[in-house]
Amino acid sequence: MKLLHEICSLPTAPFAEDRVVEYVERFARQRRLKLSRDEFGNLLIELAGSRSRAPRWVFAAHMDHPGFVATRMRGDGRTLEAAFRGWVLADYVKGAKVRFFDGDREVTGVVQAVKVAKERPVPESVTVKVAGPVAPGSPGMFDQGEARTKGKRFYSRAIDDLAGAAAALQMLDALRKKPPASPVAVLLTRAEEEGFIGAIAASLKPKLLRKTDRIIAIETSAMQPCAPQGAGAIIRVGDKTSIFNSQLTYFLTQQAEALAKRDKSFRYQRALMPGGTCEATVYDVYGFTAASICIALGNYHNMDRAKKRIGPEYIDLTDWRNMVKLFVQIARNGHTLEPGHRALRTRVEKRYQKLKHLLIR
Predict the structure, then answer these.
(1) pLDDT lower than 50: segments of the chain
(2) 126 phi/psi in degrees, rounded to 5
(3) Which of the residues 47, 76, 107, 143 has the least number of beta carbons within 10 Å of its own beta carbon?
(4) Among 21, 326, 52, 9, which Cα is nearest to 174's?
(5) What's the pLDDT tens digit per position in 326-341?
(6) Beta pairing, strands 105-116 & 97-102
């Protein structure tokens, strides 16, 4: 829980993830874990397994959240021009309270005007009335408060996908004293909210990734009627764009079923989540073996659709804990995955062998 609260309180925006990067660097250094980065600023934390030649399991999350990046102050010293990055409908943004992070200073403001992008109904840039000067390049976020818990729910100005990153780091903490057989890594990418830019870069120039990796894309995905909050972690079979690797998804389901038999408090779901596209689609496009696990997110991208205004994102804490449990289960048993869909083939052929005589007349 400490990791979840700390990471979801960090300021971030697409291409302005420096505070999250600093936190991850400190996390890896304190635990003496290997940290690598590529030329694009994506990060990889590695935990060696007892079987060094076994395929590596990579749990991937992104470090950004829709937000603002300061461009310049106008001459009056109270008006800031800023770029907006990410997908939030423009109608929600005008009049919204915001907070910019300039070094150790936090500067509040209110969005006065919005310039809408030509290709889509989201802001391209905004004009903000601010309480003081803001340096160019400073990230800004909707001023919806830092991480806090209320009952079973966890709220913050940014949960997508900082909660996913926190879950991956929590998994490493659970594994590192007794590493699993297969090597495990956490890939943290940049600028997902602007079209998976970091993930695409990591795929095109794979300094951090290997074609033999089994990649689990982590998300907090807009809740759906078929996948409500409080019903457990979600094995995401696909998004609104594509379907993920069948063999890997089946293995995740097997591991979830095994965990549920052993741990009666563990709950999981399996669903196609069509609220958006996630990085598993990108990894699939570039020939990697990828699947996805997520939890249901309320007020996706800070859009409180019931009240038609900006609000804090929120998740169910039990869902998040169950997602961490599932990560650990998969990492510890990753070496048992057999190639060629052998497990499912064995299952269907067992039924076939029992009944095939009925086909013969």
Answers:
(1) none
(2) -140, 160
(3) 76
(4) 326
(5) 999 999 999 999 888 8
(6) antiparallel
- Is residue 73 within a helix (H) or strand (E), and if so which, with residue range? strand 67-73
* Residue 50 half-sphere exposure toward CB, CA atoms < 13 A: 12
What's the angle, vertex CA 231, arms to CA 230 and CA 234, rounded to 5? Answer: 110
Contacts of 141 (CB under 8 A, 6+ apart): 11, 12, 13, 65, 67, 68, 98, 99, 101, 157, 158
CA distance 25 to 299: 30
Q: What is the DSSP letter of 337?
A: P
Residue 251's alpha-carbon distances to 33, 69, 224, 237, in angstroms, are: 27, 41, 23, 12
- What is the secondary structure of 105-166 as a DSSP string? EEEEEEEEEEEEPSSSSSEEEEEEEESS---TT-EEEE---S-EEETTEEEES--TTHHHHH
Bridge partner residues of 73 (DSSP): 80
Concatenating the DSSP letter of every residue in 191-248 gives -GGGTSHHHHHHHHS-SS--TT-EEEEEEEEE-BTTB-TTS-EEEEEE-SS-B--HHH
- Per-residue pLDDT tens over the stretch 185-228: 999 999 999 999 999 999 999 999 999 999 999 999 999 999 99
Give backbone dihedrals phi and psi of 62, rounded to 5 degrees, phi first.
-110, 155
Contact assessment for residue 239 and residue 281, using Cβ atoms and an 8 Å cutoff: yes
Neighbours of 145 (CB within 10 A): 12
Phi and psi, residue 220, nearest 5°: -110, 110
Let me know if 53 is exposed, middle or buried by CB neighbors in 10 A (0-12, 13-18, 19+).
exposed
Contact 117, 93 (CB under 8 A): no
CA 251/CA 339 separation, integer angstroms: 10
Residue type, 253: T
Q: Considering Cα of 120, then 89, then 316, then 1, what sign does the dihedral take?
A: positive
**CA dist., res. 44 & res. 21, Å (int):** 11
